[in-house]
Amino acid sequence: AQSVTQLDSQVPVFEEAPVELRCNYSSSVSVYLFWYVQYPNQGLQLLLKYLSGSTLVKGINGFEAEFNKSQTSFHLRKPSVHISDTAEYFCAVFTSTDKLIFGTGTRLQVFP
Amino acid sequence: DSGVTQTPKHLITATGQRVTLRCSPRSGDLSVYWYQQSLDQGLQFLIQYYNGEERAKGNILERFSAQQFPDLHSELNLSSLELGDSALYFCASSVRDNVLGTFGSGTRLTVV
């Protein structure tokens, strides 16, 4: 079965600093990978997705992620974070059998 | 606004009771997915319907059931509620089967 591991439950960072949120997946078949963001008391919003092609994927709000097949990773990065980026971030893998499998989430806390 | 409508937004009920959560998919979407987000289990896929038929099942309890009606809206029925059923329940919809859906803002269920 597919699984997704988000290595950090919380990531504190100062405003304007770079950030990386780590995600590893387990799969023996091709997968589609996603990052979602959940702001407090809101639903899930798609940040970016990797389906095929270029391994560097750009998403909304200045986020990007790199698909690394050999390391089975899909880390999310942003070169300079804002206070408004404070939220929970979920990595997910989508397969035809398991639908969306989510990681446990990483809480990004941006401090002024 | 994602176009996926979930009602009610909040629901408080007692243990042993039964509730119904409703999801109206985006216009034109035939597929509906239900997910549960709880503190201890994280985000989990529950069940999927496509054009009125059950298509896939995830970690859905026997006390839970769902259906999709001819107008394509879906209802998730939760019965014999327990404290541990307190969670945020998300619905997502998509045009076709086996593709990523767009999430609604969720229904927060509190069982007391």
Provide a descriptive summary of the structure in words:
The complex is a heterodimer of chains A (112) and B (112). Chain A is mostly beta strands and 112 residues long. Helices cover 0% and strands 54% of the residues of chain A. Chain A is built from no helices and 12 strands. In chain A, strands 2, 5, 6, 10, 11 and 12 form a 6-stranded mixed β-sheet that branches. A 4-stranded antiparallel β-sheet of chain A has the order 3-9-8-7, with no helix packed on it. In chain A, a hairpin with a 4-residue loop joins β8 (64-68) and β9. Chain B has 112 residues and is mainly beta. Chain B is built from no helices and 11 strands. Chain B has strands spanning 5-7, 10-13, 19-24, 31-38, 42-50, 53-57, 64-68, 74-78, 87-94, 102-103, 107-111. In chain B, the strands form 2 sheets. In chain B, strands 2, 4, 5, 6, 9, 10 and 11 form a 7-stranded mixed β-sheet that branches. In chain B, β5 and β6 (53-57) form a beta hairpin. The radius of gyration of chain B is 13 Å and the shape is globular. In chain B, 38% of the residues are buried. Chain A binds chain B through residues 32, 34, 36, 42-46, 49, 90, 92, 94, 96-105, and chain B through 2, 33, 35, 42-45, 48, 56, 58, 90, 98, 100, 102-106.
- The topology string of helices and strands of chain B comes to EEEEEEEEEEE
Number of helices of chain A: 0
Mean residue pLDDT of chain A = 90
**Into which percent range does the helicity of residues of chain A fall?**
under 10%
Binned, the helix content of chain B reads under 10%
Query: Please, how many helices of chain B?
Result: 0
Specify the biggest β-sheet of chain A: 6 strands, mixed
| SS elements, strand count of chain A | 12
In short:
The complex is a heterodimer of chains A (112) and B (112). Chain A is built from no helices and twelve strands.
Topology:
The complex is a heterodimer of chains A (112) and B (112).
Chain A: E1 3-5, E2 10-14, E3 19-21, E4 24-26, E5 32-38, E6 44-50, E7 56-58, E8 64-68, E9 73-78, E10 87-95, E11 99-102, E12 106-111
Parallel strand pairs in A: 2-12
Antiparallel strand pairs in A: 1-4, 3-9, 5-6, 5-10, 7-8, 8-9, 10-11, 10-12
Chain B: E1 5-7, E2 10-13, E3 19-24, E4 31-38, E5 42-50, E6 53-57, E7 64-68, E8 74-78, E9 87-94, E10 102-103, E11 107-111
Parallel strand pairs in B: 2-11
Antiparallel strand pairs in B: 1-3, 3-8, 4-5, 4-9, 5-6, 7-8, 9-10, 9-11
